């Protein structure tokens, strides 16, 4: 069946709280296993086909703009529901936190330890000066 990008369901812009910046919202130019080790194994064995964009998945990077103590209100941690924020793009079915580059599953890295949430949970919290990267998967149209 043909793949179609998540289409607008209603008029509306992506709206974030004032202390957050949408740094990246794009369709990655690659299609690979979310398991980077498996992806590398497939490449080494020559099993990887041509790169194609998965139009049901976007790369989202959010940046908290303020430092701790910089502003009494805007420097506070911010919790957002990505389903609500991205509703104009379609129905979010899964959210995977990634390393800053998007290459690694954040749960497999040792450097980043944020409070554990259920896998796929669209509710995320950003702390002052934090940058977080996600693959957001949308329901097939």
UniProtKB/TrEMBL annotation:
GO biological process: carbohydrate metabolic process
Residues of the Glycosyl hydrolases family 38 C-terminal domain: 56-134
Alphabetized PANTHER family for the sequence: ALPHA-MANNOSIDASE, EPIDIDYMIS-SPECIFIC ALPHA-MANNOSIDASE
Signal peptide: none
Name assigned to this protein: Epididymis-specific alpha-mannosidase
SUPFAM superfamilies in alphabetical order: Galactose mutarotase-like (SSF74650)
GO MF terms held by the record: alpha-mannosidase activity; carbohydrate binding
One GO CC term on file: lysosome
